[in-house]
């Protein structure tokens, strides 16, 4: 371990000590008042993250791990995605989304018609991603040992059709989630091929995870906005940005309050990524009525009524039935 890492380890060990174990001694006959340092808020010391990684996540709200998922697994997920697009397999509860700019006349039963698969928890092959040991060992650093897979997606960002609709507005994932505490939720997002600024990589605003949940709604974009693509109403456009360029198998973990989005795909190919949002099973549901999240609650209820004919479903129930335990015990969530 380097000297810098040794020093960081000492700092973290000090920060992770309980306040009761910290003592100050009077010097030169005078007693000074000191505020006790806080624990690292956003991660646990499980022995997986280095001191540098823990401090980076603490300050920035995201962490990129290179070459975490094998090419064999990525290729298997891609083949299953293509089978679903060809309608060769039926997946209960799966939501198939299409880019708003794709005309209905162009719909064909292959990946060109599909911009995202959502809620694939009933597909054993795709859901295998959510239980990969190498993913979960990092997830545990943020959620603790009892882990629920709450939200699954395979994104197939299409070449932009000239309307700039392949963009994803800047947003905070917590806007969609009626469970807390916030700091025990994390997203794992894995590139299924090279992801860069040309094909619409993630862009993040480092440090914004330290703020609060902001108001979200559909942005007023001339070319239209894809369904459920809400954006932050008010954020500092001059905040420094990081474009998270990745290679196949790289995985980024990020906090649900981190403001992020993605640019349009300016290439002729599709940009694929697979992701899962995890939460500690010790999390609990909240009532979002009367909060900034009420608009997404109403939209989800409308979709549930349209798709399943259910008109009295609770927002939290739409999450509870999708959640799957992937490690430890299911407690309150």
Automatic annotation (TrEMBL):
It catalyses: eicosanoyl-CoA + 2-oxoglutarate + O2 = 2-hydroxyeicosanoyl-CoA + succinate + CO2; 3-methylundecanoyl-CoA + 2-oxoglutarate + O2 = 2-hydroxy-3-methylundecanoyl-CoA + succinate + CO2; hexadecanoyl-CoA + 2-oxoglutarate + O2 = 2-hydroxyhexadecanoyl-CoA + succinate + CO2; decanoyl-CoA + 2-oxoglutarate + O2 = 2-hydroxydecanoyl-CoA + succinate + CO2. Coiled coil: none annotated. Its EC number is 1.14.11.18. One of its GO terms (molecular function) is L-ascorbic acid binding. Pathway: Lipid metabolism; fatty acid metabolism. Transmembrane segments: none annotated. The keyword Oxidoreductase applies. The keyword Zinc does not apply. Pfam families: PhyH (PF05721). PANTHER family: PHYTANOYL-COA ALPHA-HYDROXYLASE, PHYTANOYL-COA DIOXYGENASE, PEROXISOMAL. This is Phytanoyl-CoA dioxygenase, peroxisomal. It comes from Fundulus heteroclitus.
């Amino acid at each position: 371990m380097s000297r810098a890492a040794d020093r960081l380890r000492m700092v973290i060990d000090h920060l992770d000590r309980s306040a009761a174990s910290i003592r100050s001694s009077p010097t030169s006959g005078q007693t000074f008042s000191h505020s006790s340092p806080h624990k690292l808020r956003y991660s646990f010391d499980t022995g997986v993250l280095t001191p540098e990684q823990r401090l980076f996540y603490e300050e920035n709200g995201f962490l990129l791990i290179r070459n975490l998922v094998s090419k064999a697994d990525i290729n298997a997920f891609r083949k299953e995605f293509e089978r679903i697009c060809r309608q060769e397999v039926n997946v209960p509860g799966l939501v198939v989304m299409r880019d708003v700019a794709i005309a209905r006349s162009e719909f064909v039963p292959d990946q060109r018609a599909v911009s995202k698969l959502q809620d694939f928890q009933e597909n054993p092959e795709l859901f295998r991603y959510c239980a990969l040991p190498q993913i979960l060992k990092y997830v545990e650093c943020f959620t603790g040992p009892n882990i629920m897979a709450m939200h699954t997606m395979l994104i197939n960002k299409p070449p932009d059709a000239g309307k700039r609709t392949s963009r994803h507005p800047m947003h905070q994932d917590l806007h969609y989630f009626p469970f807390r505490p916030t700091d025990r939720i994390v997203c794992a997002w894995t590139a299924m091929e090279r992801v860069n600024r040309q094909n619409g990589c993630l862009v993040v605003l480092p440090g914004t995870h330290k703020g609060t949940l902001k108001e979200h709604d559909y942005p007023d974009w001339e070319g239209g906005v894809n369904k459920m693509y809400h954006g932050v109403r008010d954020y500092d456009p001059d905040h420094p940005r990081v474009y998270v360029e990745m290679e196949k198998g790289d995985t980024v973990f990020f906090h649900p309050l981190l403001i992020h989005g993605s640019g349009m795909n300016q290439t002729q190919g599709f940009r694929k990524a697979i992701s899962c949002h995890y939460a500690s099973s010790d999390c609990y549901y909240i009532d979002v009525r009367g909060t900034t999240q009420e608009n997404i609650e109403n939209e989800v209820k409308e979709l549930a009524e349209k798709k399943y004919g259910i008109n009295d479903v609770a927002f939290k129930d739409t999450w509870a039935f999708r959640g799957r335990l992937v490690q430890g015990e299911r407690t309150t969530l």
